[in-house]
Amino acid sequence: MTDLDPTALDPAAHDAADPLASFRDRFVPAPDVVAYLDGNSLGRPPALTAERIERFVREDWGTRLIRGWDEGWWEQPGTVGDRIGALALGAAPGQTVVADSTTVLFYKLARATVTARPDRSEIVLDTDNFPTDRYVIEGIAAERGLTLRWVETDPAAGITPEQVAAVVGPETALVTFSHVAYRSGWIADAEAITAIAHDAGALVLWDLSHSAGSVPLRLDDWGVDLAVGCTYKYLCGGPGSPAFGYARRDLLPSLEQPIQGWTGRRDPFAMAAGYEPEPGVRRLLSGTPPVLGMLPLTVSLDLLAEAGIDAVREKSLRLTDYALDLADAWLVPRGVTVASPREHDRRGGHVTLVRPGFADLLTPLWERGVIPDYRAPDGLRIGLSPLSTSFAEVYAGLAALRDLLD
């Protein structure tokens, strides 16, 4: 970009025009932080989270004790899951649950998928997907004697429908990618890729960790089979908060998840011999629901419901556009490369900047109160969470980076 009007870089003007600006005051402030640019790794805590947890300990847990399981706790995986589905996933009720970690849920759904396709021997995945997804699939392939069909993806972009069409076939059991690439922020064409996989008779498992709460999703409309995602990024569930899993309703009866725990049985309190899965989405559960772990989500989902995912996406694009304008004006002339899509329909909620030596700038940036994310070998991810991030933060953070490069 060239010949940018200097007034376009004025953060005060952007913040004044921000319809979601008031939401920033509803998050816990960090006094020593000038610019928090890592919302795509760990979201800020909403201010009401501490109050809700304290009240739960004092009242719900403290006074109701074990009776709480009969007063709503037991249903929470589905209750909170349905709310995530409605607000962030484009999913009708009865298809989303909250449980486990992303890795565990990803394993359950991937393993169930290849079991449901016993006459097929291949899994399609890409070389630049998030490591845990690759590791899990490698383990399943080794366990089941399956062949991995790797798609080479550009770390500055991501998977395309054309690449998928070139590799799927009659032996493909499972196709799995991230909807938003964790390095570049590339948004995959989930609808087109899902259709291509279906035409080949395969099932698709999407990782939505960098999408949920930032990019509007329409899982039901797209015909998505399965999906997982974490809740501690844009959904602000807190460090290690439980993940969500989605399974298309008509697919549920065919899913034999591999971790057969008591809470996924159709009548768990019968304590009976043998495993008979719950007919609905609760069959994805294994162990005791993480009730405390879901509490912060009840706060952050209230905020998302109030703002609306479309307004969140609109601000996300404005924030990332602004970050790109600053990068072009200040950082590209200093040897920085933008390794993220510039097109709105292909860009998620973060921008990745690349330059040799960025790893050495992390400590001095932190000392200046600027907290970006780093991904080896040379990438700084500027993760912008729309409800909690101001344009002034983006300006201050990239100005500090510019000054350090000088």
Automatic annotation (TrEMBL):
Q: Which cofactor does it need?
A: pyridoxal 5'-phosphate
Q: Which GO terms describe its molecular function?
A: kynureninase activity; pyridoxal phosphate binding
Q: Which residues form the Aminotransferase class V domain?
A: 95-353
Which keywords does this Swiss-Prot/TrEMBL entry list?
Hydrolase, Pyridine nucleotide biosynthesis, Pyridoxal phosphate
* Positions with a binding annotation for pyridoxal 5'-phosphate: 102-103, 130-133, 207, 210, 232, 262, 288
Write down the chemical reaction(s) this protein catalyses: L-kynurenine + H2O = anthranilate + L-alanine + H(+); 3-hydroxy-L-kynurenine + H2O = 3-hydroxyanthranilate + L-alanine + H(+)
A GO biological process of this protein is: anthranilate metabolic process
Q: Is the keyword Hydrolase in the record? A: yes
- State any GO CC term: cytoplasm
Q: Which Gene3D superfamilies match?
A: Aspartate Aminotransferase, domain 1, Type I PLP-dependent aspartate aminotransferase-like (Major domain)
Q: Which InterPro entries has this protein been placed in? A: Aminotrans_V_dom, Kynureninase, PyrdxlP-dep_Trfase, PyrdxlP-dep_Trfase_major, PyrdxlP-dep_Trfase_small
Q: What HAMAP family does the record point to?
A: Kynureninase (MF_01970)
Give the similarity note: Belongs to the kynureninase family.
Return the protein name.
Answer: Kynureninase
Its gene? kynU
